[in-house]
Write a structure and sequence with these properties.
Largest sheet: 7 strands, mixed
Number of helices: 21
Low-confidence stretches: none
Mean pLDDT: 94
Helix content: 25-40%
Number of strands: 22
Oligomer: single chain
Shape: globular
Length: about 625
């Protein structure tokens, strides 16, 4: 009689794929995410890879990881620690074991645990599990050997065969969590559509991994399933990362504004994928230019804006330093421009593949002179679409450069995203000059409600004009060095940005209205702070969250919320930049701080501990 497998239902599970940079762990993790999203689960992912282009094989510095949190209901973070760790070599085990729960299952490729492999990972004993004190359940599978045996008649060379190991691991994990492996087959065939022999090999090994688990029970007597208990809104969903969502948001905004989209950029981690994605969409009227340096990318975007395009430029913190002169040109000419800063660890080259929020003050004040710019911060991978759309709308309607902050965590991370109905998004209406203005118009003539200057796109008959980096006379638009005029223009530019607050939604909070502790954050930390708030409230605490998407200008209601709560903690991945900014904007408010600068996302457990301590003081 066939043995019946017991399948336990779980609310959520966290899987971490890890191995050498060439082991395909990012692909395996992405595919597991897509399979789970297709089955209706919610997901949150965290790719964690090294900055080395190609670290020595098997070395500690070359370990690449991908963590995915799969939930039966809404999940907000990739999870603190994992339920399953796939460690393709000893280096991965050594570097990634710290992310395991006590009851985690560890999957290893025994073929990659030779004495030489252990030496590369700097193990002193022949038993790495004993050396690390690992008592977890371990699935030991000779993955390399089985892949070679499976594909010995495939006609592929040895290097190509070894590249399929990640699919074996994926198949095994699919068996462990009752995932539909046929969805994985479909994804593989789509990815390798132009290389059918490679697709066939990866599909075969995927099923081999799944069947290995089924036939051996992979040393585990109980399987698990993550059912879908969410009532999702009807529509089409896709797994999307933040950079792709950002690109789509700009395409949608350009379509809504009936403008061509121009991107002037220079490649830099972790922002380059926005350039890559937009370059695929020439059929939608998108123009992309990879310039010779950062300032050229930004300056070309300023020129494209002058010519009547929705203009954007993308970069990370080091690139913003170089773009700042051209950004200021957009400030003084009052041209619409969106500068995307996908934040990474700094200073200087810093941590190119890690995530921080350390560019906030740079975005607010990192330019010469009084040069105010609106600053928006996306809250999640899927929110990057709305944030990009909103940034473009503000830039075009208020004739100003806008800084859109994301970060490496949400730019590379992904979530299940419902394809939007663009008809439901607000109109974008730039303040174009009107025919009746011809007789009295000057370049800095303004809309009395918004203080935005009117936009005369070159070629509009009767509105020939010049603008530039030298200060201009408010009335005539000619160059002016008059002290009173400079004072006036400085105040007008600041007042224009401040007035944007009137068009923003009033700031709201989540959680208890009469909370004993208010958590404040911004940008990509939303998921972790929201989860920490929910966990504390579930324990009987009274906690609320005010998460800022709009930072300059601050929305109406922020000051009232801050003054209403006796205890406020500002949690951010820097040394206190938002806290300092809020103290400047809201005088006399007392703020606690929770700061972390280690290149990694917040850990929910640590947040709960820190916030509980503040509550109990």
């Amino acid at each position: 009689m066939a043995e019946v497998r017991i399948v336990k239902e779980l609310d959520d599970v966290v899987i971490r794929f890890s191995g050498d940079s060439g082991d395909g762990m990012q692909l395996a993790g992405n595919m597991f995410s897509n399979i789970s999203a297709t089955l209706g689960n919610d997901i949150s992912t965290f790719p964690d890879y090294p900055a080395d282009i190609r670290a020595p094989q098997g070395s500690l510095s070359g370990v690449s990881g991908f963590q995915v949190h799969v939930g039966s209901k809404k999940v907000f973070t990739p999870g603190d620690k994992c339920d399953v760790l796939v460690a393709m070599n000893p280096a991965a085990l050594k570097m990634q074991y710290k992310y395991c729960k006590r009851q985690s299952v560890i999957i290893i490729d025994t073929d990659s645990f030779s004495k030489r492999d252990l030496e590369k990972a700097k193990f002193s004993l022949n038993n790495p599990f004993e050396e690390l004190g690992i008592q977890n359940e371990v699935i030991e599978a000779a993955i390399t050997t089985m892949c070679k045996e499976s594909l010995k008649d495939s006609g592929l060379d040895n290097k190509s065969i070894l590249r399929t190991k990640n699919m074996f691991a994926l198949g095994l994990v699919c068996w462990l969590y009752d995932r539909d492996v046929k969805i994985g087959e479909k994804l593989i065939r789509e990815k390798f559509a132009k290389k059918p022999e490679v697709a066939d090999a990866n599909v075969k090994v995927l099923y081999d991994g799944y069947n290995y688990g089924a036939n051996t029970h992979a040393s585990i007597s109980m399987g698990c399933r993550i059912p879908c208990r969410m009532q999702k809104a009807k529509g089409r969903y896709m797994d999307i990362n933040g950079n792709k969502a950002t690109a789509y948001g700009f395409i949608a905004a350009a379509e809504k504004a009936n403008l061509p989209l121009y991107l002037g950029s220079y490649p830099i981690t972790p922002a380059t994928d926005i350039l890559h994605e937009l370059a695929k969409h020439k059929s939608l009227g998108v123009k992309t230019v990879q310039c010779e340096d950062e300032i050229a990318g930004c300056a070309s975007a300023v020129g494209a804006s002058f010519a009547g395009n929705l203009a954007i430029t993308t970069t990370s913190g080091p690139g913003v330093c170089l773009k700042s002169e051209a950004m200021n040109l957009a400030v003084i000419t009052e041209l619409p421009l969106v500068i995307v800063n996908v934040q990474r660890g700094g200073p200087s080259t810093g941590l190119p593949t890690k995530s921080e929020q350390t560019d906030l003050l740079q975005a607010l004040y990192g330019r010469n002179g009084e040069s105010p710019m609106p600053v928006i911060a996306a809250m999640s991978p899927t929110d990057c679409f709305d944030a990009a759309y909103t940034a473009a709308k503000i830039a075009l309607e208020h004739m100003t450069p806008v800084v859109l902050l994301t970060d490496a965590y949400i730019a590379n991370g992904s979530g299940a995203w419902k394809l939007p109905n663009i008809a439901e998004y607000p109109a974008i209406c730039p303040p174009y000059v009107k025919e009746e203005m011809k007789e009295s118009w000057a370049p800095y003539q303004r809309n009395s409600d918004t203080l935005a200057r009117y936009w005369a796109v070159p070629g509009t008959e009767g509105f020939m004009h010049r603008i530039g980096g030298l200060e201009k006379d408010n009335a005539t638009g000619v160059i002016s060095t008059e002290p009173e005029n400079h004072q006036l223009m400085t105040q007008l530019r600041a007042a224009k940005v401040a007035k944007i607050a009137d068009s923003l939604p009033k700031q709201e909070i989540e959680g208890h209205e009469d909370a004993d502790l208010l958590i404040v954050g911004f940008g990509g930390t939303y998921g972790h702070l929201h989860s920490a708030m929910e966990s504390l409230n579930a324990k009987g605490k009274k906690v609320a969250l005010m998460h800022l998407k709009y930072i300059n200008p601050l929305p109406h209601g922020v000051e009232e919320i801050l003054r209403r709560h006796k205890k406020v903690v500002v949690a951010e991945q820097n040394m206190g930049q938002l806290a300092g900014y809020l103290r400047m904007k809201v005088e006399g408010v007392h703020l606690h701080q929770y700061n972390q600068v280690n290149g990694q996302p917040f850990v929910e457990e640590e947040l709960i501990e820190a916030f509980t301590k503040i509550l109990e003081e």
